[in-house]
């Protein structure tokens, strides 16, 4: 009996068992989501393609063969150099060829992807924030507020997003002084794309919020006198984030394509900050004269980026749906 130790006799510091990072990693590897990911070859390939393109864009200043926007490093005599060739008047090697200004197409794709991803990610975050906020307010309050927000949503969903973005872009450019239009073009583009894509988030979150507000934990919070804003942020929002993440992933691909479309039409980013859409517009001018690579490689990059993100969104939708497990 003398050798027995009870819990109260054990020092407190000896009872603390640290949570090791290895245990967290092991639990993550054993989770249903990781199992769903690694058993889907299409999703694995899409993940690596998306990561490769994103890393290529993020580290473009470090890994790009040349700086395509430095006039001192350009030689117009290298223009229209075919892929896997050396410039006629320089020793520059162009893996994907050179465009009409002698710029390395591979380097322009790396730098152009930075602009496309920057605009697409920020526009999606803006649309998500606006749509989720309006959806929570509409679904929780109901009544006149719900009717007004949903009618605005219905009106916006009845028009193509590209037309709404064009309208917003034109109005915003008209309100900005001419001297600041070029410097503000990227932020105007983010605003236009974000305002054209918030409706889907609002409609989805509104439906999920209407279901959650009828549950006991929301009623208990109301009885306790918790402020409605705290109820929405602490209790309702975490339970409606699943569909939001899926829509956000798919909306990112749509935002990238929408930015490329606007830039292709000449109303996107300025020529000093070309995106993938701008590169495609430039390459389209020389497609039928034989310089196919100026259009082909940026177009393939845009397709690969949008397709891989879309495939990840489809997988995420299935992985977060317990009925499909």
From TrEMBL:
Keyword entries, A-Z: Cell membrane, Membrane, Transmembrane, Transmembrane helix, Transport
Keyword hit for Transferase: no
GO annotation terms (biological process): transmembrane transport
Domain annotation ABC transmembrane type-1: ranges: 113-313
A Pfam family per the record: BPD_transp_1
Keyword presence, Repeat: no
Location in or out of the cell: Cell membrane
SUPFAM superfamilies hit by this protein: MetI-like (SSF161098)
GO cellular component, one term: plasma membrane
Primary location class: membrane
Residues spanning the membrane: 42-64, 115-140, 152-172, 184-205, 236-257, 292-316
Top-level lineage group: Bacteria
Family under the similarity heading: Belongs to the binding-protein-dependent transport system permease family.
PANTHER family: ABC TRANSPORTER PERMEASE PROTEIN, OLIGOPEPTIDE TRANSPORT SYSTEM PERMEASE PROTEIN APPC
Name of the protein in its database record: Oligopeptide transport system permease protein OppC
């Amino acid at each position: 009996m003398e050798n027995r130790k009870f819990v109260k006799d054990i020092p407190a510091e000896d009872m603390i068992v640290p949570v090791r990072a290895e245990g967290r990693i092991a639990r993550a590897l054993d989770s249903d989501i990781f199992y769903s990911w690694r058993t889907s070859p299409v999703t694995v390939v899409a993940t690596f393609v998306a990561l490769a393109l994103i890393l290529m864009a993020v580290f473009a200043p470090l890994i790009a063969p040349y700086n395509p926007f430095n006039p001192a490093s350009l030689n117009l005599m290298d223009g229209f150099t075919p892929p896997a060739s050396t410039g006629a008047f320089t020793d520059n090697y162009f893996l994907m060829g050179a465009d009409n200004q002698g710029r390395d197409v591979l380097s322009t794709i790396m730098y152009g992807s930075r602009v496309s991803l920057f605009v697409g990610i920020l526009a999606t975050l803006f649309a998500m924030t606006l749509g989720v906020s309006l959806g929570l307010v509409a679904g929780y309050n109901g009544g006149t507020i719900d009717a007004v927000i949903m009618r605005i949503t219905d009106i916006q969903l009845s028009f193509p997003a590209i037309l709404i973005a064009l309208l917003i872009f034109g109005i915003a450019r008209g309100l900005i002084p001419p001297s600041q239009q070029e410097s503000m073009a990227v932020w105007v583009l983010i605003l236009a794309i974000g305002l054209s894509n918030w409706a889907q988030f609002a409609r989805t979150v509104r439906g999920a919020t209407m279901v959650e507000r009828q549950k006991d934990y929301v009623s208990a919070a109301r009885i306790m006198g918790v402020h409605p804003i705290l109820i929405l942020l602490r209790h309702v929002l975490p339970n409606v984030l699943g569909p939001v993440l899926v829509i956000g992933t798919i909306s990112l691909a749509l935002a990238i394509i929408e930015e490329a479309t606007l830039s292709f039409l000449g109303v996107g980013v300025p020529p000093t900050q070309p995106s993938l859409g701008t590169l495609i517009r430039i390459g389209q001018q020389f497609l039928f004269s034989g310089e196919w690579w100026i259009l082909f490689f940026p177009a393939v990059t845009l397709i690969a980026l949008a397709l891989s993100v879309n495939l990840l969104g489809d997988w995420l939708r299935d992985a977060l749906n317990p009925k499909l497990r």
